[in-house]
Amino acid sequence: METKNKELFLTMPRLNQIPYLVHGFGTAGWKESDFKRKKQGENFKPVFLKQIHSDRIHFIDKVPSKKLAGDALVTSLPFLLLTIKTADCLPVLIVDEQRRVIAAVHCGWRGTVKRVLEKAIKGLKEHYGSSPSTLLVAFGPCIGPKCYEVGEDVRQSFAEAEFPDCIFRRHPEHPGKYFLDLREANLLQLRSQGVPEKNIYVVDNCTHCSNIYYSYRRNKNKKARMLSFIGLSF
Questions:
Q1: Which CATH architecture group holds 3-143+183-232?
Q2: What's the rounded Cα separation, in Å, for the pair 206 and 72?
Q3: Which tens digits make up the pLDDT trace of 133-177?
Q4: SS3 for 122?
Q5: Are 196 and 131 within 8 A, CB to CB?
Q6: Are 95 and 102 in contact (CB under 8 A)?
Q7: pTM for the structure as a whole
């Protein structure tokens, strides 16, 4: 179960046990400036992506000199705050506790069908020697399976990428429409890479249903986004 911080972001109790880690899934009331006002955030440099709904992953071994385009960030450097923006998409934070490596992944349906999360897990293994069996993975709030209505084109894209049809449910009233379970589509990728269920922590909230979150589908606001973040303090 997640813990709600008084500054309006959610944390995972298991990740809170790691002394060198800061992390959170922001609600609609949480902004970058709020983190900078916190004592533990003073020395952090936020790293943002130009998110493009891709499977592009950046492995950071020095402070980026410009904004990177892609949908996942991985680093072992301290005092970088890897940050993901979402408003219905799924934010995922990953920790290799043994090797002190972290990742932040933006999983919209397009990135999910391209298996960006699966590729991030593989990248952790290849670049840092991480073992999927010891990784800790946290899913933030996203649009839920009862609200994420998509068309036949999306369903076909997942079918072509060899995802099982069980991640979809036919819309009971609209022919040719389906409900997509975005969380399950990404959980499948973790399972395929050997991440144990006991190491996966989920904020089981729907952004479309709850007003404490931004929802693009509900609000139609192209700019309003929640901030999810993770960083190493030493």
A1: 4-Layer Sandwich (3.60)
A2: 22
A3: 999 999 999 999 999 999 999 999 999 999 999 999 999 999 999
A4: helix
A5: no
A6: yes
A7: 0.96
